[in-house]
Design goal:
The complex is a heterodimer of chains A (114) and B (116). Chain A is mainly β and 114 residues long. Chain A has no helices and twelve strands. In chain A, a hairpin with a 5-residue loop joins β7 and β8. The relative contact order of chain A is 0.33. Helices cover 0% and strands 47% of the residues of chain B. In chain B, the strands form two sheets. In chain B, strands 2, 4, 5, 6, 9, 10 and 11 form a seven-stranded mixed sheet that branches. Classes of the chains: A mainly beta (114), B mainly beta (116). At the A-B interface, β6, β10 and β11 of A face β5, β9 and β10 of B.
């Protein structure tokens, strides 16, 4: 069964500092990987996705993630945090079938301080 | 920009009562998903539709939960009777569902359920 593990349920960074949110996956086949963001009392918004093309994926709002097969990782980064980045971030995995379900991690809450 | 619509946004009910949630996916999206998100956890798939057919309902508690998408467009998720442990956010998502492609799932704002 596929799964993702997000290390760190809470991450706090200063405004302007590097954001690093960790995600490791477990899959028996090459997976598709996603990062979603959720603001309070809202649905999930896609930040970026990896679908076996380039290993470095750029997303919205300045975020990017790198797929590393040797480390089974798909960590999310942003060079400079902004106050508006404070939210819950979810890593998710699906298999390569059509319209497959997403299996989500438990989420990481990002806090951005002045 | 097209969005997934859900209603109600919030629902408070007493245990043993029936509740229903409605979802209208993005126009033209063949695949519709219902997820449940318990506080502090990631969403978990309850049921997946392809047009009007159920593709996956393996995690749906069928003794109390039911879902339908009669005309392959909007969908209703029902809980009867509600239990305290059903308190959660219920998220609806849709995707185009084209064969041979992994596509983005677009999420609605969710319905937050509180069972007292």
């Amino acid at each position: 069964a596929q799964s993702v593990t997000q290390l760190g349920s809470h991450v706090s960074v200063s405004e302007g500092a590097l954001v690093l949110l960790r995600c490791n996956y477990s899959s028996s086949v090459p997976p598709y990987l996603f990062w979603y963001v959720q603001y309070p009392n809202q649905g999930l918004q896609l930040l970026l996705k990896y679908t076996s093309a380039a290993t470095l994926v750029k997303g919205i709002n300045g975020f990017e993630a790198e797929f590393k097969k040797s480390e089974t990782s798909f960590h999310l980064t942003k060079p400079s945090a902004h106050m508006s980045d404070a939210a819950e971030y979810f890593c998710a995995v699906s298999d390569t079938g059509t319209a497959s379900k997403l299996t989500f991690g438990t989420g990481t809450r990002l806090q951005v301080t002045l | 920009e097209a969005e997934v619509a859900q209603s109600p946004r919030y629902k408070i009910t007493e245990k043993s009562q029936a509740v229903a949630f409605w979802c209208d996916p993005i126009s033209g999206h063949a695949t519709l998903y219902w997820y449940r998100q318990i506080l502090g956890q990631g969403p978990e798939l309850l049921v997946q539709f392809q047009d009007e057919s159920v593709v996956d309902d393996s995690q749906l508690p069928k003794d109390r939960f039911s879902a339908e998408r009669l005309k392959g467009v909007d969908s209703t998720l029902k809980i009867q009777p509600a239990e305290l442990g059903d308190s959660a956010m219920y998220l609806c998502a849709s995707s185009r569902g084209l064969a041979g492609r992994q596509e983005t799932q677009y999420f609605g704002p969710g319905t937050r359920l509180l069972v007292l």
